Amino acid sequence: MRYPVEAARILEQVSVEDVAALFSELPTQTGAPVMASMLPEKAAACLQTMMASSAAKLVSELHVSSATRIYRLLAPATQDAVSVHLADKTLRRVHHHMGYPPMSAGALLDPRIDMLPGNVTVAEAIRRIERLDRAASCEVYVIDDAHHLIGMLDLGKLLISDHHSKLKDIMSHKTQPLSAHASAETLLSHPGWATHRRLPVVERDNTLVGVLHYSYLQDSVLETGSFSSRDPLENLLSLASLYWLSVAQLLDSLLSIARPDKGERP
């Protein structure tokens, strides 16, 4: 297919069942570039709807980074079913890319991310968020065609922005990402926690692979005992500061929605 990215944007708005049926009929060499360009969560949902043998053919045709990004989101039962049909070499490569050092950001991340391509309009972004089968987070991460993290957008700003604007034109570039290979204890002092309760996690090439929640990070470090070297009072003050900053950020978002800017409406 000559325009896999454009095809992916269209298929992301079609039902999972219809897209899965299409991928089942397309030659894998044609379907794989399109699936690699799709948002991982939608691509994974399609694979879960397909026969395991057909899904495995697509996974085998994908670049290992794309395959891993999608494979990670499959239900364990689906992973097992697809693995049966994968070549040992392919399966080893996927598992190698999925693995991160214990107690690293990559090992603790949540792979389900509210992300949208930078080239979609505000109107389309809102429609996509409304169709989610789960509650959206306060921040939406913006990616380019190669799934590199390029920005983030607060939902409050999204709702009051010009519906014809593209996300890449209104997003914030201050994403404060975490390296997937950084140790959990080191991440506790990351400055991004001063303003956010979750932060994006990226690979070495800036590919967005997940998000890390501060509460889960802290609980994980406490469970391993590596938090003991930090001053308890410092920890308490840090948590209190994070709580009030989060409350202030939420109130600011609500006030922004309550003050519509006539100049930004379509």
Return the average pLDDT rounded to an integer.
Answer: 86
Computed structural class: mainly alpha
The number of E-state strands comes to: 6
Any guess at the CATH architecture of the largest domain?
Answer: Roll
**What characterizes the major β-sheet?**
3 strands, mixed
Name the helix and strand elements from N-terminus to C-terminus, one letter apiece. HHHHHHHHHEHEEHHEHEEHH
CATH topology of the largest domain: CBS-domain
Tell me the distance between the termini. 35 Å
Which percent bin holds the helix content? 40-55%
CATH top level of the largest domain? Alpha Beta
Strand order of the largest sheet: 1-2-3
Rg, please?
Answer: 20 Å
Which SSEs are present, and which pair or pack?
Layout lengths: L3 H8 L4 H10 L2 H10 L2 H10 L2 H10 L2 H8 L4 H8 L4 H11 L6 H4 L6 E3 L4 H9 L8 E5 L5 E6 H6 L6 H4 L7 E2 L4 H4 L10 E5 L5 E6 H11 L7 H27 L8
Helix pairs in contact: 1-3, 2-4, 3-5, 4-6, 5-7, 6-8
